[in-house]
Amino acid sequence: MSGKIHNAWWVLIGLCMILGIGKGTLNNSAGLFLPSISNELGIGMGDLSLYFSVSAIITMLYLPFGGKLIARYNIRLILIISIICEAGAYIAFSFMNSVWGWYLFAVPLAFGGIFITVIAGPVLISQWFKKRNGLALGILTATGGLFGSISQPIVGNLIANQGWRFAYLAIGITAIVIAVPVILLFIKKMNPNKGHYPYGITEGDKESQKAFDNIQNKGVSFVVAKKSSAFYTLMLFLFFLTSISSFTMHIPTYLVDSGFEQTFAAKAMGIYMLGVVFGALVIGILNDKLGSKKTTILSMICGLISVSLLLFANSSSAVIFIALILFAFVTSGIGTLVPSLALSLFGNKEYSQIYSTASLGLAIAAIVALPAYGYIFQFTGSYSGGLYAILVMLVINIVAVIFAYRGKTKLEKSGLWK
């Protein structure tokens, strides 16, 4: 028995594959389509990117219920429906001729993405990994980056050579064909009643299992959490982190506007996704060693350097690559830093509901930030204003993390964190 691979690692493999498909391939390729669609159909960049806001509104409405659904219903069925919704939207996009088509199919796109790209990974990892939680989150996010580094150039070449319609159709169908069997084979909830215990708990060790049962109930309740300054500071942090990360969708257009070719933009996005792989693993390891607070501050500093390079030294392809790799140390934080921060600040007691509700900051940011960058470019002809705003948000996030942990201290002193 001791030589068997722990169930937690099989679940992680499954999560990595479906996140790689849903986020690394589908979501992260969305920006590559924008210039071609805008040019062919004559849709303004701000008007087109507004479909991201529609998607974000749906995400905002459903997120508070997402944690409850995963806790109550069959996780495999939820994820199968989710990938069909998300990938099916891409298939539908291939037939659209009006911007209203993107607004309409942003609804199933968002519903599927709530579970595939936001909730399922952190919730299942928090259940299955007592030890190496940060590393598991890092591996999960890194795999999404690895999938993206492979798929971004492929999608870019498909758009350039076969057109955006064929590219939408091809990746949508491929995503469903691969993801559904993976979900059926690898994904399952942890259930102590069936003899399941997380990685780090010795099978058959009653003392170890008793300690685990105690840990599962340690922290604050959702009712207490949502009244705390730490909770709203975490939401603010996630709002700004998502706003910063939203610029990723506009990087291809930014690079084309800066004088680079579409094929270079696709290659640069591939480099960026490799940066996500490396950054997520490093952040995961640092999370386990330094803690969430220090790791988060280091990540934001990487972002300050990255955006400064994009603003003041963007004529060199080598500098662009370095800047995007550093930027990946920030964007990968959505999958690594935020779940770890939520666990550190509020514990395990009602983690899924606290995390999914705090993730409203993610949805609200997408409503505002994604089209904002598009409109900045549409009305000013440049992304500089957006990049300066990102610098300010990075500084605010450093301050926000410090205040979040002060809020946790208040909860502990008042006896509410137990």
From TrEMBL:
<feature type="transmembrane region" description="Helical">
    <location>
        <begin position="358"/>
        <end position="377"/>
    </location>
</feature>
<feature type="domain" description="Major facilitator superfamily (MFS) profile">
    <location>
        <begin position="8"/>
        <end position="412"/>
    </location>
</feature>
<feature type="transmembrane region" description="Helical">
    <location>
        <begin position="137"/>
        <end position="160"/>
    </location>
</feature>
<feature type="transmembrane region" description="Helical">
    <location>
        <begin position="48"/>
        <end position="65"/>
    </location>
</feature>
<feature type="transmembrane region" description="Helical">
    <location>
        <begin position="231"/>
        <end position="252"/>
    </location>
</feature>
<dbReference type="Pfam" id="PF07690">
    <property type="entry name" value="MFS_1"/>
</dbReference>
<keyword id="KW-1133">Transmembrane helix</keyword>
<feature type="transmembrane region" description="Helical">
    <location>
        <begin position="77"/>
        <end position="96"/>
    </location>
</feature>
<dbReference type="GO" id="GO:0022857">
    <property type="term" value="F:transmembrane transporter activity"/>
</dbReference>
<dbReference type="GO" id="GO:0005886">
    <property type="term" value="C:plasma membrane"/>
</dbReference>
<protein>
    <submittedName>
        <fullName>Putative 3-hydroxyphenylpropionic transporter MhpT</fullName>
    </submittedName>
</protein>
<keyword id="KW-0812">Transmembrane</keyword>
<feature type="transmembrane region" description="Helical">
    <location>
        <begin position="383"/>
        <end position="405"/>
    </location>
</feature>
<dbReference type="InterPro" id="IPR036259">
    <property type="entry name" value="MFS_trans_sf"/>
</dbReference>
<feature type="transmembrane region" description="Helical">
    <location>
        <begin position="166"/>
        <end position="187"/>
    </location>
</feature>
<feature type="transmembrane region" description="Helical">
    <location>
        <begin position="102"/>
        <end position="125"/>
    </location>
</feature>
<feature type="transmembrane region" description="Helical">
    <location>
        <begin position="319"/>
        <end position="346"/>
    </location>
</feature>
<keyword id="KW-0813">Transport</keyword>
<feature type="transmembrane region" description="Helical">
    <location>
        <begin position="297"/>
        <end position="313"/>
    </location>
</feature>
<keyword id="KW-0472">Membrane</keyword>
<dbReference type="InterPro" id="IPR050327">
    <property type="entry name" value="Proton-linked_MCT"/>
</dbReference>
<dbReference type="InterPro" id="IPR020846">
    <property type="entry name" value="MFS_dom"/>
</dbReference>
<feature type="transmembrane region" description="Helical">
    <location>
        <begin position="264"/>
        <end position="285"/>
    </location>
</feature>
<dbReference type="InterPro" id="IPR011701">
    <property type="entry name" value="MFS"/>
</dbReference>
